[in-house]
Amino acid sequence: MLKVRNLKVSFRTEQGVVRAVDDVSFDVGEGEILGVVGESGSGKTVSLLSVIGLIIDPNAVIEGSIVYKNRELIGLPQRELRHVRGNEIAMIFQDPMTAMTPVYTIGWQIAEQVMTHNRMSKSAARQRAVDLLAEVGFANPAAAVDRYPHELSGGMRQRAVIAMALSCNPSLLIADEPTTALDVTVQAQILDLIQKLRRDHGSAVVLITHDMGVVAEVADRVLVMYAGRIVEHGSKRELFKAPWHPYTWGLLDSIPPMEGARPRRLKSIGGNPPSLLALPPGCAFAPRCRHKFHRCSQRPGLAGTDGHQAACFLPPSERETARAARTPVAAGAS
Amino acid sequence: MLLALIRRVGQMLFVMFGISVLVFLIFFATPGADPAARIAGRNASPETLQAVRLDFGLDKPLPVQYAKMMTKLFITRDLTSFVNRGWKVIPAVMDVVPVTLSLVIGAAVLWMAGGIAIGLIAAATRGSLLDRSLMMLGLIGVSMPVFWLGEVMNLLTQSRLHGTWLFSWVPPLGYKPLSTDPAGWFLTLVIPWITLATLYMGLYGRVLRANLVEAGQEDYIRTARAKGLSETRIMIRHALRTSLVTIVTLFGLDFGALVGGAALLTEVVFGLQGIGKLTYDALKNLDLPIIMATVMYASFFVVTANALVDMLYVVLDPRVRTRGRSN
User: Fold this and answer.
1) Which of the 8 DSSP states describes residue A167?
2) d(CA A145, CA A130)
3) List of residues 6+ apart from A114 with CB closer than 8 A
4) Among A148-157, B237-246, B310-319, whose mean pLDDT is lowest?
5) Residue A226, exposed/middle/buried by CB under 10 A (0-12, 13-18, 19+)?
6) Residue of chain B nearest A81, judged by CA positions
7) Are the beta carbons of B242 and A58 separated by less than 8 Å?
8) Are the beta carbons of A102 and B318 separated by less than 8 Å?
9) Which residues of B touch A151 (CB under 8 A)?
10) How far apart are the CA of B237 and the nearest CA of chain A, in angstroms?
11) Looking at residue B235, what DSSP letter applies?
12) Residue B23 confidence (pLDDT)
């Protein structure tokens, strides 16, 4: 349904050109939940923002191809993009506290979106808002519709934001860290809600997160990004069972294990993500990687099978042993 | 919400009472000065002084004096000037209020419309040549002193270009009452309006642009974009709507001050007998009763304008409303 090919996004800054997204390609199928994982600044948000043309920085250069339902979105005039945005592709953002305009009721804001994309009377749009609020779990939607954002808790606000995103039955929902700003219990509720919506509406979901736990919970396929590049992608099952890239190993190590002895400390990935202004010439992860060897000074391409690919030079045969070797070392280091 | 409004009105009355006490004390209880001599004006005869003492109860305690003064100001309204003998102060102030109100309200309409238009256009075309020229023009408007701009306008419209089709409609300086001569009222005020509005238009345009640009970084604007709204709608219904609070605050302060007499320079330049001109003349003649009245009037106007702004906040920002409810 969505095909992104060789997407490159760069920003001209005073210090030079920053390539925030470098040669990223991925697909999203109908009704699929794709988890996009990476640290802050890994380009996950920027790549998805460019899908709906929301990068409005005049210094941004976007190249590549984004095809949505056989329609090329890059280069599409804003007028036409607007009909896609909010209507066919909806997006929800990280912080529900600030995501809604503070001076309007949530019902007004949902109705605004409904009326933007559909010919509908005010009262019908309001009724639609009530229905949507009921669907996302408001106990008393008829009253909630007249609430202002500041009168709701964080979880309720995020539900309202989701209701707004769903108002035009989008076939693709992009959720940018929808649970990061919420309490853990509320996080679980929101993730349940997203899964329920996929079931009921059949929308595909791209879930951007830095939390492997969230991915493990809901995603069908996973895309791991690092420094603006895809370092690994595959089905959730494959990726969690046999991750190939040392960066993915690091991310997985950051989840506390459900079974066995509790580690005294979780392992972390040493060092910091590289500055996008001064990326190492080869593999961007090499400076932080314990398994780097001479080949890493070149840039690895994605390789593997159709269902599972990684950008790493480690020979497939050595991956398992290399990963196994990490555990005692890291435990000792802790 | 109603409760919040009532409370605000109560606060307003309390502040006004405080101001009246303060103004009274400054004039009547300053040590080392005889209020009777000041009320009577320069070179008053001993008989006049005696009459003033009796009239204002200056031999009685301060609270009585205060009550007498306030009675004269607000209830009997028979406070008279001694400099211009027999001139009733309150009617004198009431006579000039329409002039100042006409000037300031007209200018306010102009500068709000112009300022908002400039701010919106500049913010919408941020970084473009249009944006930069508008901001430059705004800066020029802010920098031009109103008395100078007024004189230049007068020079052009009253003499140099008065003969041409461009300004032949401009009537001679002065004020024509709205009730008797609406057309004349409008025509005489057009140039003063433009002059007074120029400064504020530039200022408001620049402030609003900065506010809108800042609002553009907000998450809810990104949400509005993601909803597929048009840029115009985002700008007006979301960015401008949330920036209005700043503009309304500024407006309340400026409007109150101008109606209270800060439009003096404009009034003088255009020969308008307004409240500023009245205060200025009273100060020149040390006409204490008039000064009392105009100071009270001015402070009351500033307080009222601020109270109105606070009430507007309640309308503009639902968050203020809830705070009032929960308290």
Assistant:
1) T
2) 6
3) A120, A125, A128, A129, A167, A168
4) B310-319
5) buried
6) B228
7) no
8) yes
9) 322
10) 10
11) I
12) 86
